[in-house]
UniProtKB/TrEMBL annotation:
It comes from Rhizobium rhizophilum. This is histidine kinase. It comes from the Bacteria. The keyword Transmembrane helix applies. InterPro entries: HATPase_C_sf (IPR036890), HATPase_dom (IPR003594), His-kinase-like_sensor (IPR054327), His_kinase_dom (IPR005467), Sensor-like_sf (IPR029151), Sig_transdc_His_kin_sub2_dim/P (IPR011495).
Length: 510
């Protein structure tokens, strides 16, 4: 008959739930993947559009800066510049239409400032500035990187142009623009969060940025110039960390045609990715609800299946137990019948009494009584068995002999219990029959305990009777049964009759 295998249905349910979850996770992952790329694409489109706005402003500023320096250079070279330094109306006219705070200077080749629109003009030497040195070396015009003004301390960038007299370098005209002009562009773009707009010179030098940096920056070794601009003149990319402030941004860049500028709009990646994270939150809520629902259903199904498995397992256990008990009964009945037949054959000899046969069968019955009373199918309480057999013998002979018990809590296996019971029966019976002959009273002490080392137990039966000479004692049926029982218990014994009788046996009970 095929045995019931508990857990099959539970495994099937688990596998079904796992399969459903794998499908759900695959679907959710695909949706999250598409949502992520859609959000990134929308963010890239937005920063690309913003970079176009920044590029338009950069081109406009460059054209007007260049136009202003050309006007001033033409004004100086034509000789129409005012003679008095404080007469600046013609210079102001040349700067009309330029954005922001614009300051103009005309500086001679020796570094002396000839004309200026700056009311706070101070005598400073700019010949060490790149926008002067490059023109003195022969360049026609120049746009500086981000500078700190030596006059006011604010952040500026400078358009400069060379002018000549009689074909020789005579000085430079400069137009200084405050980087504050980036703020309106920043406000117009409004990408949200921690975003920034920048003009960067094509050699990687930062020209202007808003929000303002603490200082200028050389970006020539940054990935924008080492990689992206070499591949295409405009595009987008994700910057893991800004070289200025370490913020993760998505960057839109565009090389401004006809200018030395690269326009940059860098948006806060966390802000632009909020729609994606919102979708993830929705997905998480849906997943949590689905998870709780499926787990609840799984636990309920598992509980029902567990009850079914427990019932089936209990039935199977009961069946196995009954089969085991049936085999045990057959085995014990066979052994007991063999023992009874052996006892009967012994007692058929002349001189044996029926009472001894009865006592020995009672000792065997005591074993079965303990099994049935306590459901002890594997091991019995050895102390209780010894006590019961001893009391049965005392009761059978009606003796007034007192018994003292010193019994340790030990166990004896079912296979050895009958041998132990017969051994105790024989030893105690011998004491009652022979030790107190001619006496009205006596005392027997029965001890059972373990040895300090090993797995052997020690059974001792002592009496205060008349004793006997072990050398001349005749071995009868009882002695043979006693020795046979000891052999079944893998033991040995000693018998001393010099001062009363003392029987001691080393036995293996388990």
């Amino acid at each position: 008959m095929e045995r019931y295998a508990p857990g099959k249905a539970q495994k099937f349910v688990v596998m079904a739930i796992v399969a459903a979850w794998v499908g759900f996770i695959a679907l959710a992952s695909s949706w999250a993947f598409q949502s992520y790329h859609a959000t990134v694409k929308a963010a890239e489109d937005r920063v690309a559009t913003s970079s176009l706005v920044v590029a338009t402003h950069a081109k406009w500023i460059y054209e007007f800066g260049g136009q202003a320096t050309r006007r001033l250079a033409d004004l100086v070279e034509s000789g129409r510049a005012p003679v008095q330094v404080n007469t600046v109306q013609d210079i102001n006219g040349a700067l009309e239409g330029l954005p922001g705070t614009v300051k103009a200077y005309v500086v001679a080749a020796d570094g002396k400032t000839l004309y200026s629109t700056d009311p706070d003009l101070k005598p400073i030497d700019i010949r060490d500035r790149e926008y002067f040195k490059e023109l003195a070396a022969g360049r026609q015009d120049y746009v500086s990187s981000l500078l700190i003004s030596r006059l006011g301390g604010e952040q500026i960038f400078v358009f400069s142009r060379r002018f000549e007299q009689d074909g020789a370098f005579a000085g430079v005209v400069t137009v200084s623009l405050s980087t504050d002009l980036m703020q309106p562009i920043w406000e117009a773009v409004n990408l949200g969060g921690n975003f920034a707009v920048s003009f960067i010179r094509e050699d990687g030098q930062l020209v202007a940025r808003y929000p303002k940096p603490e200082a200028g920056l050389d970006m020539s070794s940054y990935v924008l110039f080492t990689d992206y601009l070499k591949r295409q003149s405009n595009g987008t990319y994700i910057a893991d960390a800004s070289p200025l402030d370490g913020v993760q941004r998505i960057v839109g860049y565009r090389k401004v045609e006809g200018t030395p500028f690269v326009a940059v709009a860098a948006a806060d990646l966390g802000v632009l990715m909020r729609p994606f994270w919102h979708n993830i939150e929705v997905l998480s809520v849906v997943t949590a609800l689905a998870c709780l629902g499926s787990l609840g259903a799984a636990f309920r199904i598992r509980s029902l299946l567990r009850i079914q498995d427990d019932q089936a397992a209990a039935l199977q256990t009961a069946l196995d137990k009954n089969e085991l008990l049936l085999r045990e009964i057959h085995h014990r009945v066979k052994n007991n019948l063999q023992s009874v037949m052996s006892l009967i054959r012994v007692h058929l000899k002349p001189g044996e009494q029926s009472q001894a046969l009865s006592d020995r069968i009672k000792a065997m019955v005591a074993v079965h009584e303990l099994i049935y009373q306590h459901d002890a199918f594997e091991a019995l309480d050895a102390a209780q068995l010894v006590r019961r057999v001893t009391e049965n013998v005392i009761g059978a002979y009606g003796s007034g002999v007192a018994v003292d018990f010193d019994l340790a809590p030990l166990y004896v296996s079912n296979d050895r219990a009958t041998a132990l019971a017969l051994l105790v029966n024989e030893v105690v019976s011998n004491s009652l029959k022979y030790a107190f002959e001619g006496q009205d009273s006596g005392r027997i002490q029965v001890r059972l305990h373990t040895e300090e080392t090993g797995d052997m137990s020690l059974l001792e039966v002592s009496d205060d009777g008349i004793g006997f000479d072990t050398a001349i004692a005749v071995k009868g049926t009882g002695t043979k049964l006693m020795e046979g029982s000891i052999r079944q218990l893998d033991g040995s014994y000693t018998l001393d009759g010099s001062d009363g009788t003392h029987f001691s046996a080393r036995l293996k009970l388990i």
